[in-house]
Each structure stands twice: as structure tokens, then as C-alpha cells.
Amino acid sequence: MKMNMYDIIYKKREGNPLSEEEIRFFINGYTEGSIPDYQAAALLMAIYFQKMTPEETYFLTDAMKNSGDIVDLSSIEGVKVDKHSTGGVGDKTTLIVGPLAAACGIPIAKMSGRGLGFTGGTVDKMESIPGFRTTLTEQEFLDQVKRIGISVIGQTGQIAPADKKLYALRDVTATVDNMSLITSSIMSKKLAAGSDAIVLDVKCGKGAFMEDLESAEELAKAMVNIGNAAGKKTIALITDMNQPLGKAVGNSLEVIESIETLRGQGPEDITELSLELAGYMIYCGGKAHTPEEGRNLAEEALTGGSALKKMREFIAGQGGNPHVVEDFSLFPQPSYSQTVISEEAGFVASLDARRIGMASQHAGAGREKKEDDIDLSAGVLLSKKVGDEVMPGTPLATVYGNDPDRVKKAAEEALFAFRISKEKPEKGPLIKKVIQ
Ligand code: URA
Predict the structure, then answer these.
(1) What is the pLDDT of residues 52-89, one digit of tens each?
(2) 187 CB under 6 A from ligand 1?
(3) Residue 117 reports pLDDT greater than 80
(4) Considering only CA atoms, which residue is closest to atom 8 of ligand 1?
């Protein structure tokens, strides 16, 4: 019998699982344009309320992965390891763990994204390095990984085009935050990107899609199961995203903090998370017997300077000015700054990551519409984080940018992100759980 969208929507609306064929019919039809947005939106809403079984989620991921090109990395020797974060504020770990793992012999051939809403994206950050090219031909990309051990580029044309269309539709139909839809969206792209193993950083907290540990764990398990079922060793770390990671939020500010971290002078949280993630990547890539041994190797690469050297080679390989590693004045410079001051005495009890992300975006670091240009020098530099003591007049953060009105508005927003209390708050762990 010929399949049709009406029956598929009806079946899901009534809470019945869809077959592999029905899911493929939907994904193929929607990608090629024979299924209209209104029917796809109706099905997404039915999935949102009725949910999908693990089996359906697997079929959905597989159909989305197969909707476009599959990157072939087989000409690169060794176990290629990818890393993915579900999205956060101040999360510049790719720029640190990439060189760390590559310095330990793990080939990194990675595609990254641009910023989305209040969260930043690696591609935008890398573009703040003068001359750096985030678009390479496939051959240039492969050659650089063979020569230097690491290349990171923007997503090329046809990786999981079904996700591109569906993500845009979910964004405007209030159907983003569904476990199966997030899982299939992320994992279809990861599986199509060609690496042999995947380390996932699932963010949990106020600045993440998953606010509580239970739902973060459910998402992590779903993604790990799908990765392993597809034959790729997949591990997820569930990590805190209640406050921004590190002190820098905004494109060039975050690249500078990444370089400082690779010099051994980075903030404690970003250093700790980067070493842990790199440890798991080195373990997944077969260069260590345990994640702990992997972490030790990453620490040696950090303290011995080989990771910083790798960062220099990586930047130069993609046309960027490698002297940025020693001279931060080579980055785009902001014309305006405004410092936010504490009005009270006490301790920083909480620091809302989402608000800081929004403040950075409003200062010029992010886009409000897809086609907007961004100000690579704009962002927020935090002076205080959760648990730090403050007095009236203590600087909490400085906002940077090139538009004085935007900087002023962003500074007001940044101040609202801080909550000061008399008691010193308990700090939760940065790494909450590991799902293997
Ligand atoms: N990131 C993605 O790529 N997709 C989602 O659905 C959520 C976060």
C-alpha cells in the first residue's frame, strides 16, 4: 500500500510507534520537498507529545544521516575522534582539546558550527584570528590533517540536509526540546562527519537545553546508545552549564582565553574540563589504556608546550597569523568597554549563563538574524564567578564592543546575571557524570 503523510501523522498522534519505512518516507520526502512544512510541523508536534521509542529514534537518526553526504576520512591513518558539545556559553573547549589531543597523536578532522541564539560557535571564534580560513576544499582539509594532525572547518554543503530543514522548522514551532529530536539532530551530523569515535559534552544547567541532571542523563544515554549502535565508540560527559565556562564570552576573547589555557595560564574550570575531554578522546583514539592515562598524556602536552605548538601549526595551516599566539594585539580590538560594578557586599551566589550569553550577543558577538554580521571583538569578560567574594564597587565583568549603545545595554544585562548573597554558596561538581 502506498504510504502517505496523513496516515503517518495520525499514527503518531494516537501514540503508536512508526516503522523504519514510515520514518524514511517522511525524511526523504521532506528533504526533497514533496512533503510540505505544515505536515512536517504536525508530525514534529505529535512526536513532541507522544515521544519516540529508542528504536524509532535510531531509524530517524539513520534516515537523517543518509539524507546527504557522508564524509570519507579513511585516507587519514589512525582512529579519528570527534568531540561535540550540546551548546553552552563561554565553551571554547574545541580550540583547546583539538590541539591537546592532536599533540598526543589523535587525528582531528572536525566540522564545527556557528553561534546559535545565546550560545557561541567555534567557526565564528576561529574567524577572529586574522587570515584564518574556515572554508577549505575537501582535499585541503584532508591534507592538513595528514600533515599537521588537526583541521577544523565550517560544515560543508550537504551534511545531513534533513537536519538543516528540520532544525529551522523546530525553531519556529516550539519543538526543539524533545529528546529524540535533539538526539537525531546531533547524532545524524556526527555520524555523517566520518570520525571513528565521538566524545560528547552534554551540558546541564540554566545555560543549556537540558536544565536538570535527569534529562541531561537521558539525552546522553540516547546519544551514546545510537553512536555505539552505529559502530562508533561513543562516550558522554555530563557537565555543568549553570555559569559560563571560563571568564571570556565572545569570539576573539574566547580564542585569547584558549591560547592562555594552552600556555598553562587558563581559568581552572576550562583547564579541568579540557584535560578531561582530551583524556577521553585520547583513550577513545587508542593512545591510552584508560581515560586517566589519556588525561595524564594531555597534561604532559599542556605543561610541555607541545599542545601550544600544535595550536600555532593549526592556525598557520589554515592561513591564520600564528603570531597571535604571542601577541594578542593582533586580534580585532573593540573601541568601547563598560565595567559592571557590584553594589553589595557578599559572595556571587549564581551567575546566569544564559543572560551572559545574551549580553555578549547584544554587545555584537552574536547574530539576531541568520544573515547578520558579527563584531568579532565584542563580548563579556567576567572578573568574578560563583563563590567569589565581592564588596560594593568590586568589578564583576567588563563588556566590550564597537557600538556604545549596544555595549551600554549589554552591561545592564550582564549586571542582572549576578546574584549576590551573604552566604558563600556550595559549588557543585563541574563534571557530573560519565556515560559510556
Ligand atoms: N544542537 C543541534 O545540533 N541540534 C539540536 O537539536 C540541539 C542542539
Answers:
(1) 999 999 999 999 999 999 999 999 999 999 999 988 89
(2) no
(3) no
(4) 86
Check pLDDT > 80 for residue 331: yes
Cα–ligand 1 centroid distance for 180 (angstroms): 11
Which residue's CA is minimally distant from atom 6 of ligand 1? Answer: 182
- Ligand 1 centroid, distance to 337 Cα (angstroms): 33
- Identify which of 47, 86, 123 to mutate to test ligand 1's pocket (most ligand atoms within 8 A of the CB): 86
Q: How far is the CA of 26 from the centre of ligand 1 (A)?
A: 19
Mean predicted confidence (pLDDT) in 312-339: 98
302 Cα to the center of ligand 1, angstroms:
31
Q: Phi-psi category of 136—alpha, beta or left, where left has phi over 0 and alpha has psi -120 to 50?
A: beta
Does the pLDDT of residue 369 top 80, yes or no? no
CATH architecture of 81-325: 3-Layer(aba) Sandwich (3.40)
Is 362 tagged catalytic? no
pLDDT value at residue 157: 65
Residues forming beta bridges with residue 435, ordered by sequence position: 236
Sheet holding 233-240, edge to edge: 81-85, 197-204, 233-240, 431-435
The segment(s) of the chain belonging to CATH 3.40.1030.10 are: 81-325
Superfamily for the 333-421 domain = Pyrimidine nucleoside phosphorylase-like, C-terminal domain (3.90.1170.30)
DSSP letters along 35-103, please?
Answer: S-HHHHHHHHHHHHHH---HHHHHHHHHHHHTTS-----TTS-S--EEEEE---SS--HHHHHHHHHHH
Give the nearest ligand 1 atom to 185 CA. 4
Catalytic-role residue among 24, 65, 83, 84: 84
Residue 318 has pLDDT above 90, yes or no: yes
DSSP letters spanning 243-270: S-SSSEESHHHHHHHHHHHHTT-S-HHH
Fold observed for domain 5-50: 1.20.970
- The whole-angstrom separation of Cα 409 and Cα 176 is 28
Q: Does ligand 1 have an atom closer than 6 angstroms to the CB of 61?
A: no
Mean pLDDT value across the chain: 95
- Find the 85 Cα to ligand 1 centroid distance in Å: 10
pLDDT at 206: 84
In whole angstroms, give the CA distance from residue 113 to residue 156: 10
For the full predicted model, state whether its pTM sits above 0.85. yes
Asked if 163 is an active-site residue, the reply is: yes
Instruction: Check if 84 is active-site.
Output: yes
Counting beta carbons within 10 angstroms of the beta carbon of residue 392, is it exposed (0 to 12), middle (13 to 18) or buried (19 or more)? exposed
